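Build the 3D complex.
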Amino acid sequence: MNKIGLIIRREYLTRIRNKTFLISTFLLPLVIVLFIAVTVFLAMKGRTSHRIAVMDQNGYFKDYLKSDSTIFFDFSPGIDTLNYPEKNCSAILIIPVLNEGQKTIYRLKYKKQLGLSNVDDLEKRINSAITDHLIYTRTNITRSRLDSIRAASDIGELQTFSDEGKKSQASSQGLSYAVGYACGFLIYLLTFIYGAMVMRGVMEEKTSRVAEVIVSSVKPFPLMLGKIIGIGAVGLTQFLLWIVLIIVLFMGAQAFIPHELLQEVNHIQQANAMGNAQVAQSSEAARQIFVVKQSIQNTNWLMIIGCFAYYFIGGYLFYASLFAAVGSVVNEDPQEAQSLLLPITMPIIFSFLIMSIAIQDPGGSLAVWSSMIPFSAPIVMMARIPYGVPNTVPVWQLLLSMALLAGCFLFSVWMAGKIYRTGILLYGKKPTWKTMWKWAFKA
Amino acid sequence: MLEVAHLKKYFTTQKAVDDISFRVEKGAIFGLLGPNGAGKTTLIRMITGIFYPDEGSILFNGKKFEADEDSARIGYMPEERGLYKKMKIGEQAIYLARLKGLSSSDAQRQVKDWFVRFEMQSWWNKKIEDLSKGMAQKLQFVTTVLHRPELIILDEPFSGLDPVNANLIKDEIFRLASEGASIIFSTHRMEQVEEICDHIILINKGNKILDGTVSHVKQEFKENLFRISARPLPVQHPENLYEVLSNNEEMLTIRIKNGYGPNDVLKYFIEQQSGITAFTELLPSLNEIFIKLVEGTSLSRQFQPKQS
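Done.
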């Protein structure tokens, strides 16, 4: 149909030509990167150093509990549970006499919360202080000797491989996690951004009263579909631009790696290909680059990008048609949209929450089920796919999830079309879900 | 060219259009009148293919009306109208013309022609939000008739227009009609209807209550009122012959009683040695007819459950 093409063209071109499109395409990744950088920075900075007073009744912790930048242990003799705040300590650790073979409770009293990671850290330090003390008192090993044994023993490194029958692929759990999270987050973000864009577009047509003019030339359904497809195409364009941007950035980043380091990386690559596991002699930096490079090379990007496109389109069609239905029934008052939007935005936000849990255990039952249910499938499934398709996500799960999503968006587009048809021409009536339901299924 | 027969459209809360029939001839300017909520918009939406009628038929050029094909031959300017605010005016006009099935080059040419005719060339790269209400209205009219529709439906086309631009559009309406387009003109402004329309129908509460040419309708509703000026006026007015409604110096408004005609009155005046200077029949204005017909029915339409 020629007319729907015209509508798609208009929707697409007016948005692509808009300056905000270019700005958002290049600014959004920047904002995301900045956001991540700032959170990491704050998290690092957030580890404020604590001064902890110690009341030790054993007398030996002084030698083994080591202070560092995050925790400083104060063994001043006069300190007690009453005066530690005056001595600038945020907490006091009371270690009673420890008897061997008997669980003893040592206590930490504080005025200011230390935070969970600090407490874990503290416990680890105390335990290793006890171990150290026992090693020294039971054996006659010297401290320097023990330290050198420790250093020499740090030679193993765990590499994970995903078992694919004939060959096994080196994989990186970390990278899969990062890519999965990024994919899920992007789908979440794009669904919101473009869904809201569809809704605003429909509301614009209704409030500017152009709807009835257009509807006298085109049926409402192609008008709605044209708008959804046109805006979806804008989203895909943005997605493609991002891929290009990432590739360019990646190439750019490689250019900054010194040449010698790259050669070293190549060396490891060759050594690894020959089954040589001895990589210890190469430098730490080269080894890390090698791991990143290898896991990037071993990730099935085509599969990820293809699935991303499918789940973006499917999830977008599903949610955008609901957004369009809401846009068609509201009048000028944005407040009305707010309350009607809740049943649409809740599942999206829920899916995102489920995704951040499911990604910890991508093969678990929560992950499997929520990636089947069409409401959450686009976000959750996209977070699972980077872990590997035939292994973490069986093919049948992927196909079933895709089929269910397709069925669901066909249904939602059909239903939204019926609501839209009536809503777009109706002014001044306060919409409810009940009337929308009636238009969708009774009219 | 348009024939509407026994059209019905019931909504859950009311009978919006209840058995309306009429026909519009080629080249005619047809007035569709009615109070607010009479069902005009619903009727128009059925003719433009936006709604399907529940019952009845619409014949377009003698064939059954098919919204998909025939919408290209209809130009509709709704009462609730507007254009994309952020879109450039030239592009917008071309877009709307192409939605009506014009090819790209055709649309381009038509839009340019009309912009020249209405002196809007300088608007091409402007946006709607830069236009005044009157200018936007003019543009809206242009976009309605761009594709040379055979049937043009105008709902309150003059609202918001100054007299100069209203005249411009009025002239265009006459020109389009003389070139063979049929025009359905829906309004509350009766003086415009008297001026423009050949044929009118009046609908109220979903029913057609009046149908005919303007002069015919006026004849039908005349009340034998005449205005007579004479010097001197007769001293006595025979009550069996006529009734004086108002007496303004040397001008009388009279209603001639049944059984008598204007000649009887004139004869009486002559006999009374009264020098007649003017004698005219007073025909009711459409406004008066409209009010007379619609008054007494409740002003705003009550919602009533349909009875089936």
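The mean pLDDT of chain A is 83.
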